[in-house]
Specification:
The protein is of the alpha/beta class and 412 residues long. The protein contains 13 helices and 14 strands. The chain has two domains: 137 residues, Aspartate Aminotransferase, domain 1 (Alpha-Beta Complex); 240 residues, Aspartate Aminotransferase, domain 2, CATH 3.40.640. Strand 10 and strand 11 form a beta hairpin. It starts with 20 loop residues before the first helix and ends in a 10-residue tail after the last helix. 48% of the residues are buried. It binds pyridoxal-5'-phosphate (PLP).
Length: 412
């Protein structure tokens, strides 16, 4: 006989367990033979196993020193390497403005924790990366969505919302956003900085994808465009997840020193530090030159996949879909042109062995404001041939859905 579950009196944000839209698709996406266009997972065959092995071998003679407790803010070797990477991106940062995190997501969680309290207002793009929204919601803050277009966040709408809501934080993915794939222009990046100063909110630039540009003109990160007046109002999170390996859980955060100090304190309460050994491997990987050799390789491979998906969509779905080809990153945001809503199409797609994420789950309030015809297609995890196969299957799924054929797959 099982014991009754005690009443644990969970805090409000944890009364219901949030399951991101992608997680519920995982059993279908992992079926043998299925083409998954759903997860934002880097291509495993492109992981630089040899380079990481080499970096690992190089640090081994000093392993004893890397088995001890260490600085919460990160290993000096990795911090120096990350300051170098920031410099290459145009971001000057002092040692007291940077810390190592367990990924960009962890940076977001730390910033939320030190800045947000119950009832504070936060603005994010709508649709947004769901984990970011959760990090904010777990603090008890009210999360509001600013509309986005194919050019990224709607800056005029943000100005109006910020005047009304007085948010403490506004968070944006300005380069190759998730899920929308959009990139904010230089001009609008400068406007975002002006708005941060005007409305006195912290502008968090979440930048996991900035290095993955395949075409178009390079635009500096928002933080690189900040001047003395706006820089105190910007924080920057980035990661090795998309360019090196998400399983290493290495990311970083750049923020004004007063904020960063508190994030270090919050991290001490979290996990004491990131694994020291892994940080040393990452530092060696960067400073030994492998990182800079590897990124162009993935850029080339992902760029070719981006082209392949574009060709397949244009060739096989034509005017049945609408989209703006992203200039980088991992995602196409595709709208079905007819009456069909993406959630209705999904069971047909699963039956034809292709999986995508319906756009609905990325909106802040799926019950209210959503584009039901939108879907997110990830193009990096599978090669060109499988991307083409996936779109061929999607076209057949769309035929079957339009013909209202019976479908055996039923999603909860
Ligand atoms: C916009 C955005 N932010 C943060 C993350 C999390 O990245 P990390 O693995 O560095 O925590 C992702 C991952 O998909 C993302 O798309």
């Amino acid at each position: 006989m099982s014991a009754a579950v005690p009443n644990y009196a969970f805090t409000d944000p944890f009364k219901e367990i949030y399951i991101p839209p992608i997680r519920s698709l995982a059993p279908y996406a992992s079926r043998p033979g299925t083409v998954s266009l759903s997860g934002g997972y880097p291509a495993p065959e492109l992981f630089d196993v040899e380079g990481l092995q080499e970096a690992s071998d190089r640090i081994m003679p000093n392993l004893r020193g890397f088995l001890q407790y260490a600085n919460v803010e990160g290993q000096a070797s990795l911090l120096a390497a990350l300051i170098g990477l920031c410099g290459e991106r145009g971001i000057a940062c002092a040692p007291d403005e940077i810390m190592v995190t367990g990924g960009a997501q962890h940076g977001m969680a730390l910033l939320s924790r030190v800045l947000l309290a119950q009832g504070d207002n936060v603005i994010v793009e709508d649709p947004a990366f769901p984990n970011t929204v959760q990090a904010f919601r777990y603090t008890g803050a009210h999360v509001h969505g600013v509309p986005v277009t194919s050019a990224g966040v709607d800056v005029d709408a943000l100005d109006e919302m910020a005047a009304r809501l007085k948010p403490k934080i506004v968070s944006v993915v300005a380069s190759f956003s998730n899920p929308g794939g959009a990139t904010v222009s230089r001009e609008n990046r400068l406007r975002l900085l002006q708005l941060a100063v005007k409305h006195r909110f912290l502008l968090i630039e979440d930048d996991p994808y900035g290095e993955l540009r395949y075409c178009g003109e390079k635009v500096p990160p928002i933080m690189a465009l900040a001047d003395a007046q706006s820089r105190p109002w910007v924080a920057y999170t980035s990661t090795m997840s998309k360019t090196m390996a998400p399983g290493m859980r290495v990311g970083w955060l750049v923020a004004p020193a007063e904020i960063r100090r508190r994030c270090v304190s919050a991290k001490a309460a979290d996990d004491m530090s990131n694994p020291v050994w892994i940080q040393e491997i990452a530092a060696q990987y960067i400073t030994g030159g492998r990182y800079h050799e590897h990124v162009p390789r993935i850029r080339a491979a992902y760029g070719a996949r981006c082209e392949a998906l574009d060709r397949a969509l244009a060739g096989m779905l034509g005017d049945r879909v609408g989209y703006v080809k992203p200039e980088g990153g991992m995602f196409f945001w595709v709208r079905l042109a007819g009456e069909i809503d993406a959630t209705r199409l999904l069971p047909y797609a699963i039956e034809k062995e292709v999986v995508f994420v319906p756009g609905q789950g990325f909106y802040l309030d799926p019950a209210r404001h959503v584009d039901r015809h939108a879907m997110r297609l990830s193009f990096v995890t599978v090669d060109e041939a499988r991307l083409t196969l996936g779109i061929e299957r999607l076209a057949r799924a769309l035929d079957a859905c339009e013909a209202r054929e019976p479908v055996a797959v039923s999603l909860a």
